[in-house]
What we know:
- By secondary structure, the chain is mainly beta.
- Helices cover about 5% and strands about 25% of the residues.
- Strands 1-5-2-4-3-6 form a six-stranded mixed barrel.
- A hairpin with a 2-residue loop joins strand 3 and strand 4 (about 110-120).
- The two termini are about 25 Å apart.
Amino acid sequence: TPSSTSTPAAAYTPPTTSSAAPAATSSAPPTSNGTPGACSTDGKCSSSGTPCCGDITHYDTDAAHQTKGACGWVNDGATEDVVALPHGMMGEQSNGNPFCGRTVNVSLNGKTASAKVVDKCMGCEGQSIDLSDHLFGQLGNPDIGRTQAKWWFTS
Length: 155
């Protein structure tokens, strides 16, 4: 159940790409009853009905300072839909990481939006992810700060 605390998003090293992330909206992976599937326990976070579940937070990608994230790109989190995966999932490799550039869908309260993986979240544990301010705003009120959502890879 999503919490409605006002905890600020964890400090984060922003991603750094200049290419725009996907902004498409779609539905969550359906199960036999049409709702998102049970949470993944294997970390695959697939669209076949086993999304990842965890906290979502949001961050400023600091494009004004041309700060690069773990994937080596500069992004504008005020206008781009980008996401940082948990450090435990991405591992030690940064630039050239196989997760960089992949697309994920994030679903919260019946809304789903797509985002590009551009960074590693050092403060995210388990299946928790960090969303750009723009992406979080599409799914919920940024004043929430931290809540739980489902997400899965689409590419």
